[in-house]
Amino acid sequence: MSTTELPASPEFKANHAELMDGVYRWQRHIYDLTRKYYLLGRDRLIDGLEVPAGGTVLELGCGTGRNIILAARRYPGARFFGLDISAEMLETAGKAIDREGLSGRVTLARGDATDFDAGSLYGIERFDRIFVSYSLSMIPGWEKTVSAALAALAPNGSLHVVDFGQQEGLPGWFRSLLRGWLRKFHVSPRESLREVLESESRRTGATFCFRTLYRGYAWLGVIGPRN
């Protein structure tokens, strides 16, 4: 794998890493084929990144590399960095990035999204854009991921998050069915996602935009440049 995979942060949670490797050891081979039907809003997030020329972009929880590859195509002048706690997912992502001829623009590293040192992992401290797509619902202590991402933003940078909403506009039977399915994969939609993002935007003096997609199936939040 020619894509660079840097050493893991020493603080990453070994137990969660083992869990994610176990979940995705086989699923990673069919992940993108199956998830495209219900991980809604990812392409909208990518379109909204509006990465500046020569900008830097970090994806937390990059998984199979699907999003980072699409974003790299969408913004050919930018450099991309991906972080994931699962070695299995990073293996798949690295191979996909190599196949797409993007290894010169994409760097992967293994680490914990709630507590990472970008400088030691990538040799870069701040990013113009950071995005998290359907990962907060799988990360224990996910609120720390939001704080860590904001700390790694460059001046005038922005954090973009898409994840499961509370399906507030959808029938109760659908919500129950979806929640039961997601639990099989250790996924828990975060009821307080909007409140946490809004609180963090106020704490940092940043702008905040939040959208409910598909009758609450998904939520999309952006913490923008400081006022």
Walkthrough of the structure:
By secondary structure, the chain is of the alpha/beta class. It has a single domain (5-226), classed as Rossmann fold (3-Layer(aba) Sandwich). It is 38% helix and 24% strand. The protein is built from 9 helices and 8 strands. It has an 8-stranded mixed sheet, sandwiched between helices. Helix 5 links the parallel strand 3 and strand 4. Helix 7 (142-151) runs parallel beside helix 9. The longest helix is centred in the first third of the chain and has 14 residues, at 14-27. The protein is globular, with a radius of gyration of 16 Å. The protein starts with a strand and ends with a strand.
Summarize the structure in short:
This protein has 227 residues and is of the alpha/beta class.
Topology:
Blueprint: E1 5-6, H1 14-27, H2 31-35, H3 42-47, E2 56-60, H4 66-74, E3 79-84, H5 87-99, E4 106-110, H6 118-122, E5 127-133, H7 142-151, E6 153-164, H8 172-183, H9 193-204, E7 206-213, E8 218-226
Parallel strand pairs: 1-4, 2-3, 2-5, 3-4, 5-6
Antiparallel strand pairs: 6-8, 7-8
Helix pairs in contact: 7-9
Pfam families: Methyltransf_25
GO molecular function: methyltransferase activity
Organism: Mesorhizobium huakuii
